[in-house]
Amino acid sequence: MAHHEREPTSGLRATAPPLQPNAFFRPLDVLRWEHDRQLQTSEWLLQQTRYERLEPFIEAVEDLMGFLTQDLVFHHQDEEEDLFPTLQKRCRPRDSFESILAELVRDHATEGFLMRDIVTDLRRVAKSEDVEDPGRFFASLKIFAEGQKRHLIWENEVLLPLAKLRLTEIDLEALARSMTARRGMDESA
Description:
The protein is mainly alpha-helical. Helix content is about 75%, strand content about 0%. The longest helix has about 35 residues, at about 55-90.
């Protein structure tokens, strides 16, 4: 099974429909699909942080680790290495893309910082070890999930419409090729 089709072992991502390989021919739709799945994950995390219990994380640790160390990393690479630079070339001054980009890059850096601590704690959970500082773990999860929600809503309402307006068919084909290569998928799938 390909990385992007990993079957969830917990209820964490059970509501996300599987992404078919041929979907990458429409890379902006794939980014939107990933945003929707990230929003679902953020909602799940926020729900779990209300109770501050580790049990749900024991069941979901595999899904969360895959999400944080693979899926989200690929997604950020899709944006930072391909989408953002292409938009920088295509956007017009009135699009104010430089200020949009600064906000997006700042959000990604914050997410990366929080993810490092969260992944360290999840590795302990995976080994059936105690989390070093449960209060910090749940606070980091809450800040991460709240930031993700704000960031993703903004990307859906500002970034993706701008990409749809400014990117050419050649740009979209290049984005699709990069996204499939990054995931080790056959372009013709």
